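Please predict the structure of the following assembly.
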Amino acid sequence: MISMGLKTPMIEVSKVSKQYKGTDFYSLKEVSLSIQKGEVYGLLGPNGAGKTTLISILCGLISQSAGNIAIAGNNFKQDTRTIQKMIGVVPQEYALYPKLTARENLLYFGSMFGLSKSTLQAEITMHLDELGLLHFADKRISTFSGGMKRRINLIAGILHQPELLFLDEPTVGVDVQSKQAITAKLNALNASGTTILYTSHHLREAQDFCTRVGIIDGGVIVVEDTPKKLIETTEDARNLEDVFIARTGKELRDYA
Amino acid sequence: MLVRDLGGLIILFVMPIVLVVTITLIQDSTFKSVSGSTIDILLVDLDKGKLSEEIYKNFEETPFLNPISTAEGELITEAQASYMVASGTYQLAVIIPEGLSRDLNTQITKNIADILEEFEGNAIQDTTTATVVPEIASKVSAKEVTIYFDPITQETFRSAVIATVDKLIASIETKTVYQAFEKEMGTSRSMESFSQGHFVQYKQINPSLSGEAIIPNSVQHNVPAWTLFAIFFMVLPLALNIVHEKGQGTFIRLQTTPVHYLTIIGGKAVVFLGVSIVQFTMILLFGMYLFPFLGLPFLVIGDALGVLYVVAIASGLASIGLAILLGTLLSTAEQAAPFCAVLVVVLAAIGGVWVPVFVMPKGMQMIAKISPMNWGLEAFYDCFLRKGDFFSILPEISLLLLFFISTVTIAMLYHEKKKKV
C-alpha cells in the first residue's frame, strides 16, 4: 500500500452540509474529512447514512448546501473540467449501453476523456485481458452475466487512468471469482498511484482492501481510522462488522 | 445503438411511410369524390311523374352519383330506404314526394298565367286560366323532398349532397318554366333564344407565389402534413432515450466526464436530425416514384428541393428541442411515453395537420399561430402548394429555430438547477 501523510490532500472536505430541497433534515451535517493521495478510503454506513450524497457531491453531480470541497487543491466551482479529467466514477448501477458491445461501450466512454482511438484501443485490450474479458470484447453487454458487467463497469471508469477513483459498491451481486478479479485490479490501480474512495456494505472486503475507513451515520462521520486501529479500539470487536455495529447500533434504517 | 434496435428503426423509418401512404390513399378518395368515386343514392319515387323521371335521369348522368330505385327487382319503399340508411347499408336516400310533378306544373302554370295577365294588363281574357288557376292554386302547397342521411356522414358531405340535389331540381324547374312559357306563347321559335347552358361559369385558379400553375391533390396536401407529423413523432423516441439514460447509470457516468451536457445532448441531436433527414428523403422518394404505383398522383417537387430540406431541418430541430426539453423534465419512461405521444397528436391537431386552421374557431386559430407544427406546416405548404422560395419560408423557419434554441436553453437551465436539489 501507498504510504500516507503526503502534504496535498487528494480530497479535502470542510464542514460540508447538504439539505435536499423540500426536506426538513440534513443528509450531511458539517462533514469534514481529508483523504491523502494514494489512499484507499472506505466510506461505510447504513442505508441512508449519507454515503451516496457525499460521493455525488464529490463527483460534481450535485452541489452542497454549505461547506467547501477541494479535489487535489481544485475547487468544483472554478475548476470543474480539471477535476472531471482527474476523476473516474464507477457507479453502483451498470452504467453501460446494453445494445452496444463491450468494446463499443468502452470506446464511447473513453472518447469522453479525449483519448485517441489508438490509445483507447490499446487500453481497452489491456484491461479486458487483465479482467478475463478479451474474448467477449465484441459481444453485446445485454448478453453478459452480472459479474462480467461489473468488470466492464469498472474498466469504463479507469480507461483514462484517473488520479482519483470513486467506487460505489463495485462488487455488489458478483461471484467470488469476479470479486477477486475486481479487487486485484483495484489493488494494482492503487499501487500505480490512484487514490480510491470506496463505499460498500461488504465489511470484510473493506477491512482487507481499505487503508482507512470512515463510518458515517445520520449525515455525520462518527469515526475514522485504519481498520486495524478501529478494531483494536472498539470493545469486544473482532472485525470491522463489530466496529460498525458498535458505532451505528442494531436499529434498522428504513427510509421512505 | 439505433442501428441495433430493429423496433426503433421500424418506428423511425417504416411507420412514417406507412402513415403517409395510408392517409394519402384515404384522403385521395375525398379529393376525388367530385370527379372520381361514386356515391350510391337510394331514390324512392312516390311522384312517378315527369319530374321524378328527370331527377333520376340527372342523377344517373351526374358522374359521382349512382341512383338506386329497386332492390331485388322491387321498387324501394320509403320505409325500406329509411331502414337501409339507418343500418348503414347506404349513406343516403332521397324521397321524391307524391304529386311533385303535377303540383310543380300547376304552380308554374299559375305563375306564368299571373305574369302574363299582369304583363298584358288583363288584355288577354283566357277563360281557362282565369277560371281554373285560382281553383288549382288553392290546392297546391309547398313540396318537401326528404333526404335520409346515415348518422356517420359529416356535415360537409350532407351540405354537398343537398346542394347537388337542390341544383338538379332547380335546373329541372327552370327547364319546366321555359317549356310552360313556350306552350303559353304557342311557339317554339322564341325559346331558341333561351340558352340551355349555364350563363355563369366558374373558373378555379390556384394562385402560387411564383406564378406557376399548381393543381392541388391529395399527395400535395398530405405529404407535407404527415411528413411533419412523422418528424415531430421523433419527440417520442428521443425523449424516451434521454429518460432511459437518466434511469441507467450511463447518465451519471457521462455527467462526471469533462464533456459539457450540451455536447452530450448535441450528439444525440445530430443523430436524430440525421434520422429525420433520412426519413424525409425516404418519404419524398416514395411520393415521387412509388405513389403512382399505388394509384396516387405523384409528388411534384419542382425546384423547391433545397427549401424543402431547409424546412425539414428546421422542423427536425424544433422536434429535437422539444424532445430534449421533455426528456430533461420527465423522470420515468412510464410518464414520458404516453405524455409525448399524446402531446404530438395534440400539437398536430392544433397545428392544422388534421383540420385546416382556417376552419377552426377563432380562439384555436390564435393557438395554432403559436404552434411549432403550424409553422412547419405553413412552410411546407409554401413549398409544396404555393411554390414559395426561401424568403417566403423565412418567418416560419426563424420561429422553428427560435423554438429549438428556447427549448434547449430551458432544458439546460433545468438540468443545472437540478444539481442544486
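Chain A touches chain B at residues 20-21, 59-63, 81, 84-85, 87, 89, 91-97, 99-100, 109, 112-114, 140, 153, 156-157 (CB under 8 Å). The longest strand of chain A covers residues 9-18.
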